[in-house]
Fold these 2 entries.
Entry 1:
Amino acid sequence: MNSVQRAWHEIVRDVLKENEVRLVTYVPDNVLNPLIKALHADPFFTTFCCTREEEAVGIATGAWMGGMLGVVLMQTSGFATLPNVLASLAVPYQIPLLMIISERGTLGEFNLGQAMVCRTMRPALDSMGIENHTLRRLDEVEFIVDRTINQAVSTQAPAALILNALLTGGKVEKRKGN
Amino acid sequence: MAASEKTHNQRKVMSRADLTGRLVSRLRNEEAVVGGIGWTNFELWGAGARPQNFYMLGSMGLAFPIALGVAIAQPKRKVIGLEGDGSLLMQVGALGTIASRNQKNLVMVVWDNGAYQITGGQPSTSATVVDLVGLARASGIEKAYWADDEDEFEALFERALAEDGPFFIAAKIDASRPAQTTHRDPVHIRERFMRGLGVRKDPHAA
């Protein structure tokens, strides 16, 4: 363990590496930006942006069947586009699809659209029986990410890690006037 | 456009079954094939058993993204994505992703009958206004071609297997019902595919 405190995104990067997660497909997000930058900067990872989250899931699925483990990064609203491909590809084909989702829509959300879509996320995951954990505390990040990757691979099941604003700070907007 | 060049819907309509058979018969190096959904998929299933074939059962539009993932994981193997026009139109952005990665071992093949055949033959936009090869070229896929007849399809496909891609080959095909239906067992499909790619082996065979 490093004596110097690592940021959440540094821990996530290191744990992905330790678990041989080499492919990173994502749709951009503000809160995920430091993680995306760190992954692009490290040649261990093959990291690239996709046009849709479904596409990113398809690429990670193909790569795993070809022998390369991957992770898909997205925002809450991006996850909301995924139930069809999770239910018809990742779950029934038993794919250890790793998803890291930055949580918008709660703890100070300023956009009602984001707040509404956030409420669909956990019910959608639970309805498909997809293991999911919410990361709130820095001291739990390493353990939860590491164990989740291991379980997903061993049981051949998709898994979602939700990055809460308590961990990342989230995205907020100063209110002006009324 | 040159005056002599055909518009995309003035091309010869070929047999999906015949072209799929020609495609499969040209595979000699354990190339991976990812089949999109619908009658494209049934036709690939009917063209014969290959452990390197993967059959989707849903996730419409993801044949090329899945094929791209396989191609990234196994850069020495040629990977073919086989897709229908309706499915491609649902995930057009993937063409730009593939072009921007310049994935050399990826071959995209599209059977274009201008219809959502499995749902009742409702016309897709490629029946009228959308030129799929034009779409691929505009997305940055330089080696994107229409196959005007069976011989041209075989020549283009041989080239795609021999040269660096990414390649995109489209053909206008008919609406005939495939002779067979894909066996719908996702775990079996996935496990056989992974063994066919050498990622897994029979645990008893160690």
Note: The longest strand of chain B covers residues 106-112.
Entry 2:
Amino acid sequence: MDASVDPQLAVNKTPLVANGRSMDWVTEKVSSIVETRTPFWWWIAFMITSPVALMGLCCIAYQISTGVGVWGENHPVGWAWDITNFVFWIGIGHAGTLISAILFLTRQKWRTSINRASEAMTLFAVVCAGIFPGIHVGRVWMAWFLAPVPWYEGIWPNFRSPLLWDVFAVSTYFTVSVLFWYTGLVPDLATLRDRTTSRVKKFFFTLFALGWRGSNRNWRHYEMAYLILAGISTPLVLSVHSVVSFDFATSVIPGWHTTIFPPYFVAGAIFGGFAMVLTILIPARILYPQLKDLITPQHIDRMCKIILLTGSIVGYAYAMEFFIAWYGGNPYEQWLFLRNRLADPYIIGPMLHVTPAPYWWAYWSMITCNVLSPQVFWFKKNRYNLWVVFIIVNFVNAGMWFERFVIIVTSIANDFMPSMWHLYHPSWVEIGTFVGTFGIFLSLFLLFMRYLPMIAMSEIKIVLPESDPHYVAPGTAEAETHHSTH
Amino acid sequence: MIATAQPPKVYGIAAEFPSASALYHAAEQIRDAGFKRWDVYTPFPVHGMDKAMGLGKSWLSAVVLCGGLTGLLTAVVLESYPSLIEYQTVVNGKPTDWATVPAFVPIFFELTILCSAFATVIALMVMSQLPRWNHPMFNWERFSRVGDNGFFLAIEARDPKFAEEKTRTLLESIGGHHVTLIHDY
């Protein structure tokens, strides 16, 4: 190799921060989002999302005060939109942790401009997810029964139940994500503290920056702490959706009792999560044009590639699940896949002479959105076209919701006993609650964008060439000697 | 407190450097000059700075190991005692004996992670001597750029090798700008 070529540049031709921006530029542009007046569009957006959030909270209040009977659940469909929405939201969180932890361990430097916003997205998605199992227990005031305390008649929870594992997994996930996110925020809060002129802001930034001053004796421990948090978050994020999948996989219900579930769920979670990251970052990038040099088309391209990869893994999992249903020879499972999911009224149903499956539209929406639509990302032109990307990732968002609906509802609506069969339809309360969680999620994200640095300034400075202690500015006398010595 | 008319105590002498690489080389020289109580301040962790300052590997990981083991042990006791001894829950006639221990593993794992994460953050705070409301370095006006693009080096007055004039000359000779005496108000 030509020794004069910087190995970093040789591997990575496009710089991660476009247009050769300086450190000062990064600080100025990222902080300006927090420091300048609230833009008009922000108020418009918040005036839309916050009433939606309020509507969701009202639906929840109505459901708690009246009872779970206000939902469309029945026997045998005891889990429906509530658990679908829970798995949907918890899955979305996974992309944030993947970006902050797994891409950190694998030295993917491009993560630095998207990790903060993605981690925030994780937290808000987990907040939305946590609502559903909480309210679906019916008598919410008894939810403390989930905690391992024998305060009622000496009764302990069942530690052998995947549902209790889930309580531990999700609460650990949320707590560790908050700690990781906050640790990353501290140096940036210190930057804002040092810049602000407002006394009130100064007080809060001083409080939350914990007295951080960029000391190398602190950075030394900080870097180790960050590495460890990334190291423990990596198996954690893989475990969370695995444990969620155990809620289904350890049962004996055809369609749930599947060993492929843990990896299939994890891939699906990352898939859906990256779609949500792009869904919020593409508009954010347009609304705050200063972010365009930080979140470059290159970043979007790479996220699209991850969506293509994980979407294809999910597609493989669908195929394999179907194959095993046939190959396993279990008549109930075969029946379920064909007659509850696959058989549509137009092609497969008439071809095989079977009655169309009641939820065929959900199954085929899932296949179209999750397996077919991301295939357009094979072409570079599509990955660089923001309209195409935005439309496809919203297909993926919808498809991942359908996936959970298909898994949960089609498996239990028509189970072993025909006398028990009962189709499921959501009530307005369920629809309102689900739509409301989007309001909660987007309102929280808007507040985050407005009041906290949405790009990790201290981290993005590391990927700038001048952060290297052996960097020599091009065109200087030093640079000439630097070249000749190589 | 009794107000005294004494002049403010000197915290140390600080200098600003134009870039990460200038600070890196300056740190090497301060290290070689034998100073012990000094620090550099940067907007981001500079790669290799620990070595340039003569600092070893952070031992934070040892604390985290202890935290993780505490979490694991908590989970072992929390799950085994009720489920195997005190309150055996029989669900659908399934066994409750020692052979069911694999079902405890997910919570072993989760609590190990949870306690490791808390240990990491608490150890980071304790080892960095944070949180704190103020620091003498904040008294220096130029220092407000440390989170932006400022690179600083400060030698504390309590360093045995510290001598106001000599240290000032040293910092200037290794390329430091705006060499300033920092007071500890």
Note: Chain A touches chain B through 71 residues (CB under 8 Å).
